[in-house]
Specification:
Shape: globular
InterPro entries: CHP03980_redox-disulphide, DUF1858, ScdA-like_N_sf
Distance between the termini: 13 Å
Pfam family, one: DUF1858
Protein name: Disulfide oxidoreductase
Oligomer: single chain
Largest sheet: none
Number of helices: 4
Length: 66
C-alpha cells in the first residue's frame, strides 16, 4: 500500500490492510465497523471524533513500515 494520507477512505485502508484496525483502536478510533467508515476519510473521521488526524496518519504509516 502507498503511504496513507488523511484523504484516504477508512474502509479502503482497512480492506487493503486489516492489521491496521488495531492502530485505529489504539488511537481512539473505535468506530471502524460503522457504516460511515466505508465512505469517510481518515481526516474527516478524526475531526468528528476530536482526534489529531496527523498523529493518526503517522501511526498508521509507522505500522505499515514496521
Amino acid at each position: 500500500m502507498a503511504k496513507i494520507t488523511k484523504d484516504m477512505i477508512i474502509g479502503d485502508v482497512i480492506n487493503e490492510n486489516p492489521d491496521l484496525i488495531q492502530v485505529f483502536f489504539q488511537n481512539g478510533m473505535m468506530c471502524i465497523g460503522c457504516p460511515a467508515s466505508q465512505g469517510e476519510s481518515i481526516g474527516q473521521a478524526a475531526q468528528v471524533h476530536g482526534l489529531d488526524g496527523d498523529h493518526l496518519v503517522n501511526a498508521l504509516n509507522a505500522a505499515l513500515d514496521a
